[in-house]
Design brief:
Blueprint (H helix, E strand, L loop, with lengths): L2 H7 L2 E7 L4 E4 L1 H6 L7 E4 H5 L4 H17 L3 E8 L5 E15 L5 E12 L15 H20 L3 H10 L9 E8 L2 E8 L12 E2 L5 H8 L3 E3 L2 H7 L4 H5 L5 E9 L2 E10 L7 H38 L10 E8 L10 E7 L5 E8 L4 H19 L4 H16 L7 H6 L5 E8 L5 E7 L5 E3 L5 E3 L4 E2 L12 E5 L5 E5 L1 H5 L5 H12 L13 H14 L18 E8 L18 E7 L6 H12 L6 H21 L4 E8 L6 E8 L19 H8 L2 E6 L4 E8 L6
Parallel strand pairs: 17-20
Antiparallel strand pairs: 1-2, 1-6, 2-3, 4-5, 5-6, 7-8, 7-12, 8-9, 10-11, 11-12, 13-23, 14-15, 15-16, 16-17, 17-21, 18-19, 18-22, 22-23, 24-25, 25-26, 26-28, 27-28
Helix pairs in contact: 4-10, 5-10, 11-12, 15-16, 17-18, 18-19
Length: 718
Amino acid sequence: MRTEDVLAAIATGLWRWDNASGTVTLDSEAARLLGLPAEPVVLPEVAVRSRFHPVDWNEINGIVNLAVAEGTLAEARLRIMDEDGRVLRTVRSRSRPLENRSVDGCVDYELIGTIQEIAEPQPGTTAVHTPITGDWRRSREAFLLDAGRALAEARSTAEVLRVAASLSMPGFNPDGLAVFGVAGDRLSVIGHHGHGPGDEDLFTDMRLDTDYPAAEVVRTGRAIYLPSPDDYKRRFPATWPLAQRFGRISWAFLPLIVAGRTMGAWMAAFKHPVSFSPDERSVLTTVARMLAQALQRAGVAESERELTSGLQRSMMPMLGPDIPGMQIAARYVPTGGGLEVGGDWYDMIPLPSGRFALVIGDVQGHDVRAAGLMGQLRIAVRAYASEGHRPDAVLSRASRFLAGLCSSKEADSYEESDFRSPRFATCLYVECDPETGLLEVARAGHPDPAIRMTDGTVLMRPTAGGLPLGIVPDTDYPTTRFTLEPGETMMLCTDGLIETGGHDLDTGWARLRAILESETHDPVTHASDGLEKLADLLVQAVHGPSSHHTTGPLADRREDDIAVVLLCRDGAGCGCGAPAAQLTRPARRTVLTVAQAEPERIAGARRQIRELLHDWADEEQVDSAVLIVSEMVTNVLLHTDGDALLAAEAVGELGTRRLRIEVADASDELPHKRHPGEMASSGRGVLLMEMLADTWGVDPRGEGKSIWFEMYEQAKYG
């Protein structure tokens, strides 16, 4: 009896599907099962495809592709439709894809297999349902969508492995997972789940020519399915004792392939029998592909992070040796986008005079070029400072240096032109005398420093400044001098600390001021934390706890680089050392110079007085003090040829403080009391002091005079 007759007797037909010619050859039984006349026929594939249920046709495509990739049989359950769209019968198809390579190198496939009718289970029987059902498909699709989303969001290798360990596959959930990587000719365990500590030691540093499933998967790029321990023992007798002790029943080893390159293997082990049907293999293969892509992305991201953080660390300085009588803390946080490199920097420079300099700056941009310019500019500033130049000379030379870097000959392309486009940088240079606390400040378009005084009050210290570096090669930078008193802390920062999170300069400064004045770093209760704790609090106020080195919802708020430097002069109230007992509340002082060439700084003087008296009990007294100060400073600029030196001091306990404000100038002419008319534009200074101040006076000096007034706080604090 012929083979065709035997197959026809058991209602099994033969078919040959030629993908190259687009034709399908059916014997008489196969034609009958497809609802055609029972005779051998050759049909175009579209005619045969129309006989399959659309859902089943989509299913068989994936199964055939899986069989091609694994070199196994393609088995599927198909519903046959008539011309009216009604289901005639259900058949099972088993076929093997054969590769046909044409003379021009093109690859096509030919399916050769059988087709056999399956009796549908009748109501009331115990027939087992095939796993290929609509519910199973929906569960599988939902699982794959969820797995794809979770793996796409993983940002590190550890997160990818955590996601892989938490995947719950529909109908067959593995209890043991392992991911193997390849390094040269060795196999290593990248991560595992469902095993004890040390279990991976036997499989780490395994040669690729070892008789082990994962090694063979890496060598061949084909998956290996072991449904039973007997299958494992038969195919891999040498390494079966290693796997036997884990008590697993079934194993699947799948290649991790990215861009045609096998980068490792993934093992899924089961304590219950798994037959690895085509649908189960399809799910495992899809997960392996997503896992490989996720591991590749995580590896690239980790390499970029390591590269950029190493680049940034190499360009950021270490704070120098301890300075007697002073403490320093600093933080740098790169932006959250791109390569996480930028142009912010800080530096501490020992000077030939025995002093030291603090530098903080911000090169325009958050890209590689900004980081490169930052490194060059930081070295240039350090070189100029080490030569012994004064703060204004250091910034003038740095501006000329940066302008020279950004001015180059014409570029050959748009990308090169963009890379050579002009950039500017803001900078704040502070020369410090650790013995006296004297600070000499030169500023190039940078935010002013802030001072936290011994009683906890924080003031923005106005300083003279010039244009940002690199805009005009030859620019003058005036110097401002003031003293950091014992117990006071100075904060230098870039605009990223102030403006991040949708804030402008005013609201951002208010946010930082609340942190600087808060009780969380009070020296009595947190003396050991010192400046390091305060630096962490400032950074956390901008984008949440530790979001600069961990993932989380606040990480995306890093809109700009952040650099912050804190300098504290040891003393009562600073929080840097052991707390000192205080019998009285420390005085609150501020000093400000208003030059003839900078009348706009009168507004800064008014703002200084308001900030100094931000907790004064009587708002009307604050308004009166601001009005008198404005009048006194304006008179100096109008009626003398020199600058006005403003000094303000508030002493005493809250509610009973005394405010004393002095304005000194170089003129010997004393103020006179006058009675100006309604239309007069001057002559009211003395009248205002008589009306609003509790007491006032004029003190002649060797050169010039000092006009002063005092106010006493009226209200009592409850």
